[in-house]
Amino acid sequence: MDTQVKRYFRTHFHLAAPLSPGRFESALARRIGSPARRRPILEAWKAYLGAEGGNLEAVRSFYQVLLSHPKERLEALVYAMHLPFMELYLRVLPQTLPAEGRVLEVGAFTGALVTLLQEARPELEWHALEGVAEAVRLGRARTGEVVQWHEGWFPEQQNLPTMDAVLLLSCLPEGYLGDLPSTLEEEAYLAHFDLLRRLQGLAGLLKPGGLLVYSHGPFLGKNPQAVMGALEQMGFGDVRLIGEGEYALLTAQMPPDLVLPVPAPQVRPTDAASVTVESNPLPDTEEIWALLEQGAYAQVLERIPSSAGGELAYLRGRALWALSRFAEADEALAQAHHPEAETLRVLCWAELEEYPKALPRLEELSSRGGRYKFALGKVYLGLGRLSDALRQFYESGLPEAEVYLKSTLERIEERVLRLFREGDWSESSRRVEFVEDLSPELLTRGLLRVGLQSALQQGLWGRAARYAQRLYVLGESHGALGLALSGLKVRSPEALDGVPLADLKEVEPYLTDAVARAEDATALLALGLLRHREGRYAEAVRYLERAAQASRGEPAGLAYHLLALSKRFLGYPIQEILGDHKRAHAHRAYPVRQLFELAQEAFEAGEPVLAKEFLGRVREAGLQPFGEIEPVLKLVETLEGPWEAFRMLAQSLKQTPEPPLEHLELAYRLSRSFSQSQEAGAVRGQYLAALYNAGQALGAEGLLLAELARNPEALEVLYDLAEHYERTGAYQKATEIWRKALDIAYYWEKDLALSREILRNLLFLNPTNPELQLYLEELKATSRALATLEGTPDTLVGATAESLMREALPRFHGEYLMVVGGHTQLRSRLTPILKNQGLELDWFDSDSHAAGREVLRRIQSRLERAHGLMIISSYVGHDLSEPVRLEAENLGVPVYITPGRARGITGFLRAVAEFAPQIFKRALRG
């Protein structure tokens, strides 16, 4: 079939593979799960298969009941059974049909085949004949005006125009099926299907010389040679057979007048044949049949030679079959060339475990029931199709099938249990329900238990109650517990905590029965919960202690939790109560807040070790779940030390976009014990930025002065304090702080590069100061001496104050840079210098611009034409810098965030030099 046809059946009927008639019931079960809804369809199906003598009412009833389920699309099952033959028709017919004229498809059903043929040959005038009124209405709606529909049955149709071609495809055997073998002899075929009489209906319908196309379809009793002989006897011309084997169709040309042939007389054997028989004596078949009926199989094998053919070979094969010599039986039956011999060979294949070879034929023969269903069950079992095997064994009704039935049930139980453990509750429940649909008596205790648990997990309370009742009658504790859980509508034991007291009281008898029968852990837990809610705490403790020991996972955690609460009401020692809470937390994690409360309680009770264990989970979770963090930090500081409290708070500040000022102040206070650590420096910088954003410049200055008093040689503090004075316009104080930093860097740290950077800051503040010239000469002398000593180039040779201020600053050519952050003094001093270097600047400093929507809109509107965006990290809060950065990245504008806080003017100029290559690239691309 071509791609278009495949797409048609997949789209309209969801057909991906053909369906054997023997698997009709299993396919129906997948589409309609309810046995009550399937029953009428199965009855109509059996009547359809058993119809004889032209019982068209059985055919009509079957198709009507299928079309009465449009939601399940049961008509697709009909097309699935005919799908391989439809592929043949669609491959052969378009080029076989006449060039023009009318074409009639007999038995068109809902019009899938005629629709595809019309699409292949749209120039022809298409007609469809169908006897089911519902199918005619559905087909007419689907095909529209391109196909003319007629309601009626062949050959009793009336008022039809003369056709140029008539298609009798898979329709004439319907109503004549009955109990058929795979093939029929010619006379039996013509008599069974009443073919000669029915083909007379072509008179007046098919014009002389018109094309007749016939196919037997997927039905049994096939004999294409018999049809060819009948057509030739009736006067049809150019009779041809297209295809071979199962998939074949016949074409013929309509004669001017049909001839009804007279049956030929039987030919008697000639004398020569009699002489031949006498000269080659073989045992009489009636005698052999008598021996077979007596069970004298050894005598049968002695009387019939292995080279015999025909009926004798069939009888020899039957004897070998009865003796379980299946390989020899297969060889003997192959020489018989008899329909029943071929059928018996299929049973041999099943016994020889040639399952793929035997499967198609056995599915066709399974409608005969008995040993054929039994053999098909063996094949399914060998192929691992356990559900299909179970159905065949059960429906066979043979005593020898009982052993296979029990074995199949055991394997199904193992598979269902594995699916349940893997969490596939829907599939495990479906397989248990399949066994129940076959017969409730087939359900074993194991299947009932797994079915009960799967139904509870899916919330199928009615099904769970049904399985639980069966188990309860069998004396299983699972039955009593299942009745209780299905009555409470609880999926698992851990959900018992949310059940109202009144509902628990209703199912108390079942819970008590489950405990009395098997000390069930879930029943003990439910009874303990019931007694706890009733206020009968002593009884609750007895039940819950046993439930906690017998349970695993979350149910054990719930049992220990309720046990701790009951013991608290009874006044047990606090250490024992906290121990139960600890065990409950091990099985079912407590919320972080509750763990903190337990840690406080343990600390107050003089159990610091237990308090630390509860507090460990709190430390892992951090401070996010808490609104008030001071009590948490205080307890952590007491039990674990100030460093752990500071670490928790610092981690929380990293995860908070805009931490409150009081949290930063608390973090800064805790960091004083670790002022030299990297974390403390980061917290101090974050606290400073928050103070500036809050407008507390004096607070920031006091903090820096306090830090400087604690550690006068801290260069980072000196940098921050100098920048603070520059920000506030106190240039004299800024100069003093920068000089102190220069002395420490030059005389203490002996860092020439750092001294050179600080000197540049001083020169920007006051380039004509003679003392700075002296510093410059001293740095030049030191650089010259180091160059001589180490043999390296002198980096300060010929340096002046002017060259030092502008060194390493690239030359720009009108590139456009946007700067966000910094303070007004930094912007006012650097803007002229950078513009002299050829750089266009648009600077939004933190002093003159708040982080409002208008500022954001203004920045984002100019970003598209910018060649770079620089963010000074120390003065820009998250609310401004983050949206601007994201917008710049979306537009493809390079972004540079200064590392740490920009160390005055020098730090900013160094950042511009590092960022310059990206600015140039953007300018060249844009």
Whole-angstrom Rg: 48 Å
**Biggest sheet, open or closed, and with what strands and sense?**
7 strands, mixed
**Strands ordered across the widest β-sheet:** 3-2-1-4-5-7-6
The backbone outline, from C-alpha atoms, is: elongated
Share of helix, binned: 55-70%
Based on DSSP secondary structure assignment, what is the total number of beta strands?
11
Number of continuous helical runs? 46
First-residue to last-residue Cα separation: 57 Å
Low-pLDDT runs of 5+ residues are 264-280
Percentage of residues in strands: 5-15%
The assembly state of the depicted protein chains is single chain
Q: Whole-number average pLDDT?
A: 82
State the secondary-structure class: alpha/beta
Overview of the structural elements:
It is elongated and about 140 Å long. Helices cover 63% and strands 7% of the residues. The chain has 46 helices and eleven strands.
